[in-house]
Write a structure and sequence with these properties.
The protein has one domain: Alpha-Beta Barrel (TIM Barrel). The model has no long low-confidence stretch (mean pLDDT about 95). About 40% of the residues lie in helices and about 15% in strands. It is an alpha/beta fold. Strand 1, helix 2 and strand 2 form a beta-alpha-beta unit. The protein contains 9 helices and 10 strands. Keywords: Plasmid. This is Polysaccharide deacetylase. It comes from Rhizobium sullae. InterPro entries: CE4_u4-like, Glyco_hydro/deAcase_b/a-brl.
Length: about 260
Amino acid sequence: MSGNSVWRPLHEELARWQEAGKVARFWWRDDDAIEPTAALDRLLGLANAHETPLTVAVVPAKTGPALSERLSAASGVSVAVHGWSHENHAPPQEKKQELGGHRLAEAVLGELYSGFLTLQRLHPARFIPMLVPPWNRIDGSLVSKLPALGFECMSAFGRAAEEASIPLLNTHIDVMGRGADRKGPRVGKPHDELVSELVTELQDRFEGRHEPVGLLTHHLAHDATAWKFTEGFLAETGDHPAIAWKPATALVKDQMSTT
């Protein structure tokens, strides 16, 4: 572990976990993959260097064989369904949403099924039946219909509901945020803010909450701040005895066995 003071609160919390003989489970999801890019290469390089399992949420309508070929050379990477085309169908006064109640449910579900089949075909060895709603939003009436399409789990952002119609494996730490004016493009969050969020999530788990902690990245949108935090966080936790980075498939199986 580094001596950087920014990480000190995390070091102290992990020391408490280690002293108690506890191990915190983490997992990693990156959104919006479409095709091979330099940013994707950097992402996969980090995952490989730190031997950290990674789930890549791929946009089915915009991807193709090129991404399949690129990921075939990567180890420890799984592929989830990131909606269909990542297009907003909500009116301007509402938050962006592709999987909302703004269209007929049959149309939305039809697209999701097409996305499922597309990625299952392109990534047969890496595909996991997980839906990642674009912008982490989905109309509640659609969730109960996902298992009929073949989905076995869903991943959004924030604390997972204790009772859901499909197993949830959510993310909780988003490395990207808005600037001080809350406008303009998203930027990497300050590192001390992210470390504070991590400590809060770990304290919650220490008290008995079973949910794994999910790291959320967006390789295509990262600035230098976001990349530096991601690399630093993996380095700080990769070989710590109080942290276990788990693949999504294992965590979903674990969750299903305890429900």
